[in-house]
Amino acid sequence: MKRDIDLIRQILLQTEELGSLSRSFELSIEGYNTNETSYHVKILFQAGYLEAEHISCREFEEWNPISLTWSGHEFLDAARDNTVWNKAKSRIGDKLPTVGFDMLKSILNIYVKQQFGFEA
Questions:
Q1: Of the four listed, 68, 69, 98, 100, which is most buried by Cβ atoms within 10 Å?
Q2: Which Pfam families does its entry note (predicted)?
C-alpha cells in the first residue's frame, strides 16, 4: 500500500481532537476504508508520530490511534493550516508521492515561517 499524505494529515487531526492518554479509538475518515486507515496508523506509530494500539485476531489486524507524540504535534502544527498545506502540496506537485516525509515537513515549515513574516 502506498503512503497517502492527505490521509496521514487527517489521522493526525482526528487523533489530536479525539485522542486520550489511555484508550485507543476507531477512526472514521470519509473516502478511506479501515485497511487504509489502519495501515497509516501503523506507519505513523512506527515513525514515532502516534501512540497506537495493535488489535488482531485470526480474522483481522487493525491499528487504532491513542494520542499524538511530540513529533506528531510538531508535524501537525506545521500542517494544520489549510493554506500552508495546499501551498506545500502545490509546490511539490506531481512529485508528492516520491518526496520523503522530512522534505515535506521542511517545506511546510518554510510556509509557516512566511506566514509569520520570517524569511524562508
A1: 68
A2: DUF2513 (PF10711)
